[in-house]
Amino acid sequence: MIPASFRDCKAWQKEGLPLSTSSNEACKMYDAILTQYMTWRSDETLGGLSGCISAVQAADPNFVMGHVVGTGLELIGTGSSVRLNERLAGAVRHMAELAAAQDITPRERLHVRAIQQFAKGSFPEACDLWDEILLEYPTDVLAIKLSHDGLFYMGRQTQMRDTVARVLPHWNQNMPLYSYLKGMYSFGLVETRCYDQAEKMAKEGLALVPEDAWAAHSVAHVHEMRAEMDKGLKFMETTEKDWQVCDMIACHNYWHWALYFIEKGEYEAALSLYDSQVARRSVGSGGILDIVDACSLLCRLEMEGVSVKDRFRELLQVSQSHAEDHILMFNDLHFLMASLGAKEEKTTHRLLDTLRELAEAPGENYQHQLAKGVGLPMCQALLAYDQGDFGTAVELLRPIRYRFTEIGGSDAQRDVFNQLLIHAAMKSDNKLHQRFARCLLVERDAARPNSLLTDRLIQRANALHV
Questions:
Q1: Where along the sequence do coiled-coil regions lie (predicted)?
Q2: How many domains does the chain have?
């Protein structure tokens, strides 16, 4: 039974967002999909996202927005690309053919075009189209969320913040999913270093819906970026019961929790959380966000001197199949961490060789365009570091360190590459690199005062370079 709270044809029409279908069931299933996407929580009573996507297309096979949301969510999950997956490529074509054959609204046509652009890797153009939708339809949840994710994948932090800021005045708390915008806006504020405002906004959202795992995640970011480890640990412990039910983001929140332990040097506690939550969830779900989180945690622990090779081997079982996807540079770098950590040279070479080929002829694909100047040097630096060639790792990363943002992800996620550069510079035999390491640590200490990790690294640098 579909809950009555989901919007039917008339409800969508009344809200100024008409859908080109006469099926009330299709409209309600479309709403159910949006709700799960915004809340990061599968509704198992409806069969989860996949069940609802099947149901919306069964209710009206010609409902264009049913195809937009189904195909769009598969693409935005970055687990499969039209380049390698003919079924997905066919779904994009079918969506476009349905749109061309019907009299649908201009807003729906923009959605179709945006998904087509995203599918071929033209992320900036896709985000421009979602932006165009929001200029006239600021309450279009699908455009808001897809834009937010697309900008996140490009590291467009200010745009990610501003896109939500400018639609918020058009919403009120009586509208479905209103509170979740606060968590999204909070995250944009975090990524633009407005930590006080970000915490306030996230907690406003949590006051309305304590189960908002994205808002909780934003608070976790605030504590991470301020190096407030004890506050962060207390927050995660006291709110765990609320956000752990959000299966699509719970693993990421446990990742944040583990980061606090690494920061404090409590490696066994971090490993325990990795084993009980992060590894279990990433291997179980196969979700890309879960997998990259697991790779990142192990890489950070390994740089801290913790032996994690066996865990990398386990993780390789779920990351290995994505070695040639090349959908996001951010993903590629994390999959490379897994193959290097597991000492699986064949997978490493396969990933790097296919990425080089795409970088030579990137076409319209934004991520492939990024590969030559930023992505490949970062990959090569990981490889050099793994081989003990620390000087080469520094020389590869130093010229592009202010471009790390372009690979997407959050400041907290990308910090693994800042740490990599620091470790490489400290371990290099080059005296200039060693001085550079001390400069990097001074910068880090200024940006995040009271960081225990920074203090440990400073002590290590001083001990190495007496």
A1: none
A2: 2
